[in-house]
Design brief:
The protein is mainly beta and about 600 residues long. The chain has helices at about 1-40, 40-50, 420-435, and strands at about 55-60, 65-70, 70-75, 80-85, 90-95, 105-110, 115, 140-145, 150-155, 165-170, 175-180, 185-190, 195, 210, 215-220, 225-230, 235-240, 250-255, 260-265, 275-280, 285-290, 300-305, 310-315, 320-325, 330-335, 345-350, 355, 365-375, 380-390, 395-400, 445, 500-505, 525-530, 535-540, 555, 565. It is built from three helices and 36 strands. Strand 23 (about 310-315) and strand 24 (about 320-325) form a beta hairpin.
Length: about 600
């Protein structure tokens, strides 16, 4: 009995173990199949993430430039904007702003968009404080540039402001102060509205606003040497130390150690510039004199480099620049910019270079040129041209998702003019010198008398000073000049240099030579001239005896102006009027024919 029960239990145990083993195998196979089916799904997730590409660009807005009018170009406040693409190094036009703006302010918002506020929309505006009502050209409007959508209007400020400052606080709000008022306000990026905050002690214009490391904002210059601090926690302003002088159009730069460098500017007006600097210490609340700059500057820029130094550019009557080293506490000169500028912009790029754009030159003309400062080489290099010349604009570094839809498709007109100037200088030097230098002389003229004969001239003859060609004399003529005979010089051709002539006399051997009117014999002439063609000139001379005035010889040339000359001589021999002059007569219609210097007769007969 016990044996049968034992066998049964053993059988059941074996069966249970086998069933358990089969179950484990089945579950393992199912798990393995489930794992194998889920493998392809994770591979799809990482591929979708790298699609977002942020590209650094510099947003440039407004400023004073020029527009085309029927009479030419006229200064105007611009509503245009553009970007500088850091990767390609090109300036590209974008959609226009809602308003024309100059002397405005711009601030980067936490979401990557840019707030643009205030300014003026007229070129000629007073630069003093306005105690009366607000001028109509001072703007209280504002707008926002979105990296996705472009420009759009937003709520207006509580005050109209010219030359305000806009400072992004650590709590995300933007503090707007100054612009010829003591009122201050805050912009809320979430509600996109402006709200008034505490008032400053004085009204300020073209002041500086610097965010300190503790979150407060230092307001300096713009109407008084006393500075103020804005505390975002309380929303109020409190007085702090005083500078040595009031400054406008100066710069204020937060150094890496927390101090603030105040440099240059103008005391009370734009027509003076300072080379002094001051350093503000937030721990003590005091300003201390800093080192002097190499040049006096106002309307310049100051950019904190990645190595902690400060680049100062422009604001002087030349193209100088310099660098402040906080470790050494001194300024040192750097290489010069490609152009002198003030009222320009300077933007630190992600690669450590600084983009200098626009501004006014020494003649107050807006510039469209730009350049890059490289801290490693300590040199400035060209960075192309903006789409419009501007000064008093804003420049803000932003990051956008590329490509964008608000870039205007108009870079085509720029490359087209380039071939035109290249083709013009190439063709000009080839045509002009070739036509002039290939002309080779050797004109020949054949003198054929129309009426040869013998004539006797009277002892008195008058020389016609307007005769364009030398007189034609016979080979066998003998002339006795009288003391009263006067020879006037032939007029010179002012249209070109006088030709040089080599004359070889062709006289009759039996003839007694008569005194001549010039120092050089006048019969057969062989001039050497430069001409484009070889004209054949036929000269006809006719002599007719007259009882009292003497012979009159008429010389006419084909394709030349005819001239009549009455020589003063007495002919005693038979004149043979056949000769071969090689001199080229002047063209028909030429009022003042050319003559050689050696053909000019002297005032008295030569011996």
């Amino acid at each position: 009995m016990m044996t049968r029960c034992g066998r049964t239990l053993r059988f059941l145990a074996v069966f249970a173990a086998a069933a358990m083993f089969v179950g484990l195998c089945v579950n393992g196979a199912a798990a393995r199949s489930r794992r194998s089916r889920k493998k392809p799904t994770p591979t799809l997730t990482p591929t979708a993430t790298p699609t977002v590409v942020l590209r650094p660009v510099v947003l440039i807005t407004g400023g004073t430039g020029t527009i085309k009018v029927p009479t030419g170009e006229s200064p105007a406040v611009l509503e245009t904007a553009e970007i500088y693409d850091v990767e390609t190094g090109q300036f590209l036009p974008i959609g226009k702003m809602d308003s024309r703006r100059d002397h405005h302010a711009a601030s980067l918002l936490p979401d990557g968009s840019v707030l643009v506020v205030g300014g003026v929309d007229a070129v000629l505006v007073p630069t003093i404080m306005f105690p009366g009502p607000v001028m109509p050209w001072i703007l209280k409007s504002a707008e926002i540039f979105s990296p996705v959508e472009g420009f759009s209007k937003t709520a207006s400020m509580t005050e109209a402001r010219d030359e305000p400052t806009a400072t992004l606080l650590k709590n995300g709000m933007v503090l707007i102060v100054g612009g010829s008022t003591d009122a201050a306000e805050l912009f809320n990026p979430e509600t996109k509205t402006f709200a008034a905050t505490g008032k400053m002690a004085i009204s300020r214009y073209r002041q500086s606003a610097t965010l300190l490391d503790d979150g407060r904002v230092l307001i300096a210059g713009g109407g008084d040497r006393k500075a103020e601090l804005y505390n975002p926690a309380t929303g109020k302003f409190s007085s702090t130390g005083s500078m040595s002088t009031d400054r406008i159009y100066h710069t204020a730069t937060l150094l890496e150690d927390g101090r603030v460098l105040i440099a240059g500017g103008s005391p009370y007006s734009r027509n003076a510039a300072l080379d002094t600097t001051e350093i503000y210490n937030p721990k003590t609340g005091l300003f201390k004199p800093g080192p002097r700059m190499k040049e006096t500057r106002a309307g310049h820029t100051a950019t904190l480099l990645k190595d902690g130094r400060v680049l100062i550019t422009g604001g002087h009557s030349d193209n100088s620049a310099e660098i402040f080293d906080p470790a050494k506490g001194m300024f040192s000169s750097t290489s010069d910019m490609n152009a002198g500028r003030f009222g320009h912009s300077a933007t630190l790029l992600p690669d450590g270079k600084v983009l200098i754009a626009g501004g006014l030159d020494i003649t107050f003309k807006p510039l469209d040129s730009a350049e890059l400062y490289d801290p490693e080489s300590n040199k400035f290099g060209p960075a192309g041209k903006m789409t419009a010349a501007r000064a008093g604009h804003t420049a803000t570094l932003i990051f956008v998702r590329w490509p964008v839809k608000w870039i205007l498709p108009t870079p085509t007109p720029t490359p087209t003019p380039t071939p035109t100037p290249t083709a013009t200088p190439t063709s000009t030097p080839t045509q002009t010198p070739t036509a002039t230098r290939t002309e080779t002389p050797a004109p020949s003229a054949t003198h054929t008398p129309t009426a040869p004969g013998t004539h006797t001239s009277s002892p008195t003859a008058t020389h016609n000073p307007a005769a364009p060609a030398p007189p034609v004399r016979g080979a066998g003529a003998s002339a006795t000049p009288k003391p009263s005979e006067t020879a006037a010089p032939s007029p010179r051709n002012t249209s070109g240099p006088a030709p040089s002539e080599t004359r070889s006399p062709n006289r009759n051997p039996t003839e007694t030579p008569a005194p001549r009117e010039s120092k050089t014999p006048l019969p057969t002439a062989t001039p050497t001239r430069s001409a484009a063609a070889t004209p054949v000139t036929t000269v006809s001379a006719s002599a007719s005896p007259r009882p009292s005035p003497g012979p009159t010889e008429t010389v006419s040339a084909t394709a030349t102006a005819s001239a009549t000359e009455t020589p003063s001589e007495t002919a005693t021999a038979t004149e043979t009027p056949t000769m071969t002059p090689v001199e080229q007569s002047p063209p028909i219609g030429t009022a003042t024919p050319s003559s050689s210097p050696i053909e000019t007769p002297a005032s008295a007969p030569s011996s």
